[in-house]
Structure formats: structure tokens, C-alpha cells
Amino acid sequence: MTCISTKRFGMNSTTFKSTMRLPNTILPVFVLIFVLAGCSEKPAAIHDLSGKDYTLLNQDSSIVHFPGDYRGKTVVIGFIYTHCPDICPMTTHNIQLVKNELDTQGAADVTYIDISFDPTRDTPSVLKRYADLFGITTDNFTLLTGSTAEIRSLLKDVDMYAIPEDTTVTGNDTAYYFIHTDRISIMDPEGKIRYEIKGSTAKKEDLINDITSIRN
After folding, report:
1. What predicted TM-score, i.e. pTM, was given to this entire model?
2. What's the burial of 46, exposed, middle or buried (CB within 10 Å: 0-12/13-18/19+)?
3. How much is the CA Rg of the chain, to the nearest whole Å?
4. I need a labelling partner for 30 at 20 to 30 A (CA). Which of 37, 126, 160, 215 fits?
5. Cis peptide leading into residue 67 (ω within 30°)
6. Domain 47-214, what fold?
7. CA gap 180, 192 in Å, rounded
8. Residues of the chain with CATH 3.40.30.10
9. From the first residue on, what is the mean pLDDT of each consecutive set of 10 residues in the chain (216 residues)?
């Protein structure tokens, strides 16, 4: 009964107690409706992308309209850059764990995306190598990039920041870094982001619970 909230239905404790004195023939039906109403709510949308259209490219250089091409799917989204030394690989790994688990359950209505916030370097071919490195099967896990303007617009709309730091050159190697938001987002089938989780430390079980709560 943890889903029941008298405040949610505008009841004080006195009203609630008096309601519980309904005739025995009515009470079971009332309680069932009451519980189902309390448990069926989705969390409020954090970002509504349902009216947006970002033209992006996937790892195969095919055009993807985000989020429109994913309408009807629950989408798990990571924000990465492929040369990231720590946070981004962990974020991708955590999404992979969820994908592996839900794939075994036949969850065809859930799909997975990594969106690069470094589109200048992260071309489709670079994303394809990144997918190969992580053993990502791209049938339901897509890596996306796009023009700088399009990516910036998307990041702004989801309150995601990615600030380039200084580039370091050692011999023939060039290292570059971003200060960026550490995030996995979960978008419902309508294109509304309902959950945001710290990507690098996200627990598989917590992500799956969140996904389950907003699936059709």
C-alpha cells in the first residue's frame, strides 16, 4: 500500500477514515480503484522533446531524426565523447548491462543511444570504431553525431553541458578533455525525458526499474 497518498486525492485523515466505513460490497472496489490510481502515475517530464526534430547521423552515416524516429520506444540515452578516459566508457558500459539484461527478456520496445557532444572529432566512422571496441550490437544500440549547431541545440534543450578543456600533446599523441555532465536519460515513447541518472555510477537494477515504470 505504499502507493496510496491521501494528500494526492485531496483527502485529510478524517475524510479517509470515513471513506473506509463504506458498505462492505462497495469498499473492495473502491480500494482497488484507489490503489491503481495511486500506482499508475509516471514521473513528471523533465524535458519534453516531443515537438523537437534534430537531424543527426548514426554510426553508418544514415540520417536519424531524433526523437521522431524513436517514437513508440522507451529510449535509454547516454551522452559521451569517444576519447573520454573515464566517465563516458563507464556510462556506455552501464547502458550495455541494461541492454544485455532486457534483450534476454525480449524487450523489443526499448532501444539505446549514445549521443556524442564532440561532433567535430566523433564522425560516424569514429563512432563505428567505438561501437566495435565496446562490442556494441547496433541493431538496437545506436551511436549518434551531427553538426555542431544541431548537437549544441540538443544539449541546450536537455540542460546538458560539455565544455572543452586544454589539449595536451605528448609526442605524437594528442589528448583532449571535456568538463561535462555525467548523465543517462530515459525517454518515454512520447519523446519526454522522465528520468536522469548519473551515468558513470548508474546501477543496472535501478535503470531497469525506471525503464519499466514508463514503458507502454
Report:
1. 0.79
2. middle
3. 22
4. 215
5. yes
6. Glutaredoxin (3.40.30)
7. 22
8. 47-214
9. 41 46 51 47 92 98 98 98 94 97 96 97 97 94 98 97 78 78 97 97 97 88
